[in-house]
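Hey, weird one. I pasted the CAAX protease self-immunity sequence into the form twice and got a warning about non-standard characters only the second time. First submission, copied straight from the form history:
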Amino acid sequence: MNYPFVKPKFYLRLIKELTRFIFQPRYLILKDITVRNKVYHTLGLFLIKLVFSLLVANVLAIFYEPTNITDANMANRFTPLVYLLVGGVILPLYEEICFRLSLKFKPLYAALTFTSLSYYLLTKAIYKTNLSLVDETFYTRVLLSLFLGISAYALMYRVKIAQKLAVLWENNIRWIYYLSCVLFAWLHIFNFELNLTNVLLLPIITLPQLFSATIAGYTRLSFGFKYPLFVHMGTNLLFISLTFLPLD
């Protein structure tokens, strides 16, 4: 069988397509591509993302290496199996709903994104706790987020409003795509200690997340929601699994 993963030209073509898309995001592209090629493209981009993330992490570690307090916290609170489930499956699904699902507009998609973002902001900015922590504020955060999401859906479900929003989305997908990428990357600052150094280095220490977001947005708009979701899950599962390896 003809596998493209050993061909440098395959990766060069993917990088060119991704770069072209980043400079000129489009609402619908690659509509006629086969499922097999979608999978090949997605896996190829996953490998490119993996290499880039490792390269940036290693270069950054030479000068400065901030501690990811979220990962450390989850590793301490959960058993390995639960850590894999929460960090490798549940959180990627949550983040993809939060930042990628509504790149293609539907009232339900936008409402789910609004609900997820509300939960994120309530958790991090208001209650200053962890997304996965079931504490005394958990049900308050969930219920408030659901209320806001249902209210947004009730408003956007109206035909005239939905039609206007759909046109607005399609005409401004470039800025919506850029905003989703920056939000995804920069909100990861909450994974680190909020000190002056980390805040000043925010664009640098979140560079891997920004690159991941550009790829995820590209695959979501080009192929569908499940493709960036599986890449996100695969990345998290891989890196979480590596933390279980003995270092000695």
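That's the output from the first submission. The warning seems to come from a hidden character in my clipboard, not from the data itself. DSSP finds twelve helices and no strands in the chain.
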